[in-house]
Design a protein that fits this description.
The complex is a heterodimer. Chain A is α+β, with helices and mostly antiparallel strands. Chain A has helices at about 1-30, 30-40, 40-55, 80-90, 110-115, 145-150, 180, 240-245; strands spanning about 95-100, 105-110, 120-125, 135-140, 160-165, 170-175, 185-190, 195, 205-210, 220-225. Chain A has one domain (about 60-245): Oxidoreductase, molybdopterin-binding domain (Sulfite Oxidase, Chain A, domain 2). In chain A, the strands form two sheets. Chain A has a five-stranded mixed sheet. In chain A, strands 3, 4, 7, 8 and 9 form a five-stranded antiparallel sheet that branches. The longest helix of chain A has 29 residues, at about 1-30. Chain A is globular, with a radius of gyration of 22 Å. In chain A, about 40% of the residues are buried. The model of chain A has no long low-confidence stretch (mean pLDDT about 95). Chain B is of the alpha+beta class. Chain B contains nine helices and six strands, in the order H-E-E-E-E-E-E-H-H-H-H-H-H-H-H. In chain B, the strands form two sheets. In chain B, strands 1-2-3-4 form a four-stranded antiparallel sheet. In chain B, strands 5-6 form a two-stranded antiparallel sheet. The chains are: A alpha+beta, B alpha+beta. Chains A and B meet through helix 1, helix 2, helix 3 and strand 4 of A and helix 1, helix 2, helix 6 and helix 8 of B.
């Protein structure tokens, strides 16, 4: 008899416990302080640990035989602005990449100038935050080359990428730290799978930051800015999805 | 971990083998909807799962076409970003817990003494007898109830293995960890394989949990749970004669 009561009580207890725990999770997730202080701790720990034990590690590079037959184009597949559309119709001949902010020699770079630097080609895996992966070949100028050209000032801590595309009028942007910015596999890619970078994949140039998830790989990059803090840009979280959703700024996991 | 994981799965409800895998590539498992029908497809087998998977009504009665329903996910409304935060924060506790438990059990002999089956226990006759006893709910009595039987030993070793696999395949899905420990990719045959194995291991843990809870309930929950926590297991008077 005792056992029966115990069993029923236990079942009821478990069901009640699970139910309240779930309600609790939904409520806790809606609280901004819980979200930022408790739930973001996984990202903060991962960022610190990855920087501690592997800041120079290289992402795996693959063989041409391992390329995805079709590389899924995700996010915006073009930029709607008249300015960008004009560049497309001109074949980006009048397009200039602006590099400014906390740099000693701010400058403008044409696509031909970027192509004139020593290029790097790499076959890497692109991992989307949603879970899928695609392998593609990227050709471009290492971001480090460009940053050495303009020379960062001592206060610079982050590199921000301002893009031509937008979501409901809010421009896309992304940012990375200087360890990723000077990483040898971090490229401003103008070529993909042996051809020019297609519009759907961010023509004329997109960022490749191989040890992070897809949303960090800003497409349609128009301007690169070196900053000391991310708080003055957008809503201050370092990127479009970081600002409007709760995507983590560090996307190495 | 499970429920936030199901929400992450909802963001891309397809599983692949190999290094890459996205919508244009063939998926071995898919949850989706077509018209007014929700379905689960595993390889060539397609099951209609309307109401539970692929197409279901949420708590307000609205129709949803996400893979797993609101009662199975954290948070209950679609948010990849928040479910990732839950998952990737509690993953630290999970991984550290599995690691500490594993090391501790290796060092204090719990694995060797209590969990590793003896050779004689692995004979087909012995295993068959154990299976029959479980199937007929004929639980061990007397001194035999104090140690794990062979099926228990095998399942607990399997569980520990699965927990380890969950941690390692989870790590393999991180592009930064792959750069630090590229051997993980070779161990599991690529990132998408790791994602598939992660899912399979999670499902197998759910199945284990169902059977485990059922067995605890059938074997006498008060005594069993007390013994799990305190180590004191009371033999019934009539058994211990």
């Amino acid at each position: 008899m005792n056992y029966r009561l115990g069993r029923r009580g236990l079942l009821r207890g478990l069901a009640f416990g699970a139910f309240t725990a779930l309600l609790g999770c939904d409520r806790a997730g809606r609280s901004p302080s819980f979200r930022e202080w408790v739930l973001a701790s996984g990202e903060r720990l991962a960022y610190r640990l990855h920087r501690l034990i592997g800041s120079n590690s290289l992402a795996r590079e693959y063989e041409p035989s391992q390329l995805s037959p079709i590389f899924r184009a995700n996010g915006n597949t073009t930029a709607r602005s008249a300015d960008y559309q004009a560049h497309v119709s001109e074949g980006f001949s009048n397009w200039r990449l602006k590099v400014d902010g906390l740099v000693k020699r701010p400058g403008d770079f044409s696509l031909a100038q970027l192509r004139a630097y020593p290029a790097r080609t790499q076959i890497t895996r692109h991992d989307c935050v949603e879970g899928w992966s695609a392998i593609g070949q990227w050709t471009g100028v290492p971001l480090a080359t460009l940053l050495e050209e303009v020379e960062l000032r001592d206060e610079a801590r982050y590199i921000v990428f301002h893009c031509a595309d937008d979501f409901r009028g809010r421009p896309y942007y992304e940012s990375i730290d200087l360890i990723d910015a000077f990483h040898p596999q971090t490229l401003l890619a103008y070529g993909m799978n042996g051809g020019d970078l297609p519009t759907a994949h961010g023509a004329p140039i997109r960022l490749r930051v191989e040890r992070q998830l897809g949303y960090k790989h800003a497409k349609f990059v128009m301007r690169i800015e070196a900053v000391a803090s991310l708080s003055e840009i957008g809503r201050g979280r370092g990127g479009y999805w970081e600002d409007v959703g709760f995507y983590d700024w560090y996307a190495g996991i | 971990m499970l429920m936030s994981g199901l929400m992450i799965f909802n963001a891309h409800p397809r599983l692949y083998w190999g290094e890459y895998g996205a919508n244009p590539d063939p998926a071995w498992l898919e949850i989706g909807s077509k018209g007014r029908e929700g379905y689960l497809r595993v390889a060539d087998i397609r099951m209609t799962t309307t109401g539970t998977l692929g197409l279901w009504k949420d708590s307000r009665g609205r129709l949803n076409s996400r893979a797993f329903p609101d009662w199975a996910t954290i948070p209950s409304t679609y948010s990849l970003a928040l479910s990732r935060r839950w998952h990737l924060t509690f993953a630290w506790l999970f991984a550290v817990g599995v690691g500490v438990y594993g090391l501790w059990s290796l060092m204090n002999g719990h694995f060797r003494r209590d969990l590793l089956p003896r050779l004689s226990e692995l004979s087909p006759a012995h295993l068959w007898r154990d299976i029959k006893r479980h199937a007929t709910l004929n639980f061990p009595k007397g001194a035999a109830a104090l140690s794990y039987n062979t099926l228990q030993k095998l399942s607990y070793i399997g569980v520990f293995l699965m927990l380890t696999v969950l941690v390692l395949t989870g790590l393999t899905m991180s592009p930064a960890v792959d750069a630090i420990w590229p051997w993980l990719l070779d161990l599991f045959g690529g990132r998408q394989s790791a994602r598939s194995i992660h899912f399979i291991a999670a499902v197998s843990m759910v199945l284990f949990l169902v059977v485990h809870l059922l067995m605890v309930l059938l074997a006498g929950p008060v005594n069993e749970i007390r013994s799990m926590i305190t180590g004191r297991f009371r033999l019934r008077e009539e058994d211990s004669q």
